[in-house]
Amino acid sequence: MGVKQSVLLLLGVMGMVACSDKIDKSIEDRPKNRYTALTFVNVLDDDVRFYLQPQVMIGDVFQDKYQATELLKNDYSHYRYGWNDDHDNTTFGVRDNNSNTKKRKLDARVKDGGRTWVVAWMRGSEYELSVFDKSPRNQNNRITLRVLASVDMDIALNGIVVSRAKSGVVSNHISLEHCSGSLSLANHPIDLCQQDYGRSYLIVADKNGLRVVVDE
C-alpha cells in the first residue's frame, strides 16, 4: 500500500470515528423519559465493573462513561437507569477489573417503571449475564425465594426434591416455613435465618451451593 493510500485510509477511519462519536453524543443528549431500577449482582470469581448504554450507540459499551457500578465478587448494588423511549433496547456489559480481558455483553429490553435483575455469573470458565424482571411474592410468616443457578441442580425442601433449576434460568417461586434445615440446593443445606419472614429473595447458586441472597 502506497503512502497516499495509507493517508486516505487513515483519514477515512478518523472520519468514521468522528461520525460515530457525533451519533452517540446525539443519543446521549436526548431527554430521558423512561426509568427503571436495576440491581447488579456479581457472582463471578472476580471483582468487576458493570456497564450499560442504549443498544443503538455505535461506540463500545466498555468505556468509562458507560460504567454503572463496580462490585467485589458476591456483592450487589442498586442503580437507577434512565433512557429515551426512542431507544428501548439496552446493551449491558461486565468486565473484570484486573486484566480487562474477561468480559460479556448482552442486549436486553427493560421496562419503564420496572425493577430488574442484572446478574453476572460463571458458566464453567466463561462470564455470563442474565437480565430479568424482579418478581416479589411476599407471604406472611414465610420466606419466598427464586433460584438462579449456574448449573442444573435439584431444589429440595425437607429432603424432598420439589424442583430442578436449569442453568441460567430463574426458577419458579418456592416458599419456606423454616429458615434453617428445610432448603437444600444440589444437596447443600442452605441457612436463610439472616433473612426476614414475609419477604421475597433471589438466591444465586453454583455447584457448591449458595453464593448470594438478595432481597427482591
UniProtKB/TrEMBL annotation:
Superkingdom of origin: Bacteria
Protein name: Lipoprotein
